[in-house]
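fwd from M.: "can u put these together and see what the complex looks like"

so here's what she sent:
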Amino acid sequence: MNHTTEGKQNINISDIAAALGVSKTTVSRAISGKGRIGAETRAKVMDYIEEHNYRPNVLARGLASSKTYNIALMLPAEFSRFEQPFSRESLSGVYKTAVKCDYDVVIAIAQPNNIDPIRRIVENGKVDGFILFQATENDAVIPYLQEQGVPFVLMGSCDDSRVIQVDNRQMAACQELTTILLLQGIKKIALLGGNMLNQVNKSRYEGFCKACDNLGCKRDKNLIFTGLENDILIARAAADVIANGAECIVCMDDIVCAEVLKYIEKTEHCIPEDIKVASFYDNQALREYLVSITALHFDAEELGSVACRQLLDLLDGRAVEHKIELGYQVVLRESTKLT
Amino acid sequence: MNHTTEGKQNINISDIAAALGVSKTTVSRAISGKGRIGAETRAKVMDYIEEHNYRPNVLARGLASSKTYNIALMLPAEFSRFEQPFSRESLSGVYKTAVKCDYDVVIAIAQPNNIDPIRRIVENGKVDGFILFQATENDAVIPYLQEQGVPFVLMGSCDDSRVIQVDNRQMAACQELTTILLLQGIKKIALLGGNMLNQVNKSRYEGFCKACDNLGCKRDKNLIFTGLENDILIARAAADVIANGAECIVCMDDIVCAEVLKYIEKTEHCIPEDIKVASFYDNQALREYLVSITALHFDAEELGSVACRQLLDLLDGRAVEHKIELGYQVVLRESTKLT
DNA sequence: CTGAAAGCGCTTACAG
DNA sequence: CTGAAAGCGCTTACAG
């Protein structure tokens, strides 16, 4: 057992000051690096701290300087099993980056349009800032945080140019995947998607359209279905587009894709021979499907990490870009192979 | 907009004392309910607080009373897509219960056998206690917390009777499911499972054995495979037990089950006609599989909720049961239907 | 039943 | 470059 780390922390800044024959002020300055202090004095203090494994009391520091060294991550209350890996990886990214700067991450789970959990944390002064997940559209939280003057960054996009945002280049990604499919000679591409009020879906739809338009391919209304909010609608849309001669079905997210695959399995079509399939979002379940599915891949951990770094910069008063755009990968797999 | 909640919190205990012509002590006592105080005085203070929407500064309270009103939830660094829903639901349970008592939850993600993240939180004094996930076997954290005297509760089981634990009745559940299958007349039941160093797997195995023994069914060594750590081993085991005449394959967890299903799909056996399948753990992906899979269901949110309540009781110095056992459901589905 | 005062462990003008 | 002192917003013996 290591003697220097044994037992509970109990030494404080006064003890150090006394032991070294300096003032508390000096010790504080040595630690924080703020204010003028002699290099020698400083080294002496740091050595002592090192040797005695001293860690400043974060609460006391917080009380004195109005900081908590906590940030809150807002998670949507409900999300499908397809969104879970993404949110879990983002959480990892946020966590790792926060910890590096000695911040902790507090979670806040909010039902749509209920900001009470956020309000609680803010009013209790438990955190220095927030990181928001776009997933659930919650119109109330952004205005609330703005009004309260609480720093925050959004993982996702929004129109308000005052909010700091980090997002993947959704539109460009979808445009690229669609373009690749078209260039492969697949002419009749169907698009199935969910709620178009959703920002992400809007961008994805736009990317799809741009690809078609740029290549001079007509968009066939009989092959494009959005607003598919449940399994039945998705299955029916799949049936329709197949009946209308689709060669490839592009799914705007994994929920849609999973349903489409179920439908194809039931009706005993073969992928990719009878019908090709691609998804605008990559998920382990689809990656490991019997026929591996072509999809767009986004690095969720990086998203969380960058969002957190933005917030920490903001908290330290550093300049911060208003919007950071992150990359993507187009992963071509068996499901779109030419036959 | 509500005027009483407008703008930032800025009133403090001294302001209240001054406004009411009483001492800070009195105000503090009115709020905490500790110490003798006149009912009238108290009401006066509470009214004022209500009216001005005052919330005590948690940091200051923490500094004075050595409390943070935070608890930490330790999450394993890596887990499969099958464990995610479970851990997410547990998190929800912990969160909801914590918030009710005005606690926040801080996350700690620890790689196996690395307690640095835990140590950081403890040394920084950021939380009052921990809730541990058994998932990752991390031998170092329990001894560390014990040594430091930090209260904690384990979601799961362990041999150390000093640790407060909350767990589902794994053994009983597995015994019951196996018994039901046997009583249905399915004689040749195979069991496939992963790492037997894992506490949960031990209990599940035990439950399976008890069911067989109680009904006087011999356990066939050619039908029982454990230590199946990867896809290839699982597929091979599935092939073996089918070759050995298994009528039903019981999977000790969802990872095993998913692989078994893949193997069955590839080899074009039919469920439940050719072979029946059951899992000792229920997961949305299996529930929604083409043939819905018979499984044991555990309420993860309740687990988190009860664990959190235990910890809060512990923190308030209330008596706490050493081990709480939670229920389960046996969910019979298509995959074990008699044909 | 109530209050004055010390203290929790830091930070930070202000003065030297 | 360094220090004495006030202050962050609470709690809690201690005294009345």
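replying to her w this: DSSP finds 13 helices and twelve strands in chain B.
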